[in-house]
Design a protein that fits this description.
By secondary structure, the chain is of the alpha/beta class. It has one domain: Rossmann fold (3-Layer(aba) Sandwich). It contains 6 helices and 8 strands. β3 and β4 form a beta hairpin. The longest helix has 12 residues. The two termini are about 30 Å apart.
Length: about 160
């Protein structure tokens, strides 16, 4: 089973089965300014514990500058990295799907890459509302995993 690593502010937005699979990078929360920056030393320790096959899920630096160190250290340590959607709701939903039993196994990163790519406007899958301003694919996790496995294509770059 692949260890999934994400920072605390996203994990707190997620509810559902499979969350025990998530390795959480703790993040202090300030009273006035929201979530504080991640501690680099703590991130290195937790990434070491996750092992060489860990998959790190993180939003872009523009979306969450305080988590910048997580993506940078994961890359330096040679871990697989998945860039989550910028919107917190979409990122948390993707994280919950990644932790689901149907998404575990071979090709996890590729299936999740296809899923993140589909989250943009005009994706081919039917949508359902999951909260204010959040529309996600309207497929059950097993069907979504099969679709994502078929939809992934290598980049032409």
């Amino acid at each position: 089973m692949i260890a999934l690593v994400a920072e605390e502010s996203l994990v707190r937005l997620v509810a559902g089965p499979g969350l025990q699979r998530l390795t959480v990078i703790p993040r202090a929360h300030g009273r006035r300014r929201g979530w504080k920056d991640l501690d680099a030393d703590r991130v290195v320790d937790i990434l070491d514990e996750g092992g060489p096959g860990a998959l790190v899920l993180v939003r872009d630096v523009e979306a969450d500058p305080g988590a910048r160190v997580l993506g940078e250290l994961a890359r330096v340590m040679g871990l697989d990295l998945l860039r989550l959607p910028a919107a917190p709701g979409e990122a948390a939903w993707t994280l919950a799907v990644a932790a689901h039993d149907d998404f575990q196994g071979d090709g996890l990163l590729r299936r999740l890459e296809a899923l993140v790519g589909e989250m943009g406007e005009g994706g081919p899958l039917p949508r359902r509302a999951l909260g204010p301003g959040l529309r996600v694919p309207a497929l059950r996790p097993a069907a979504l995993a099969r679709w994502a496995g078929c939809a992934w294509r290598p980049c032409r770059m």
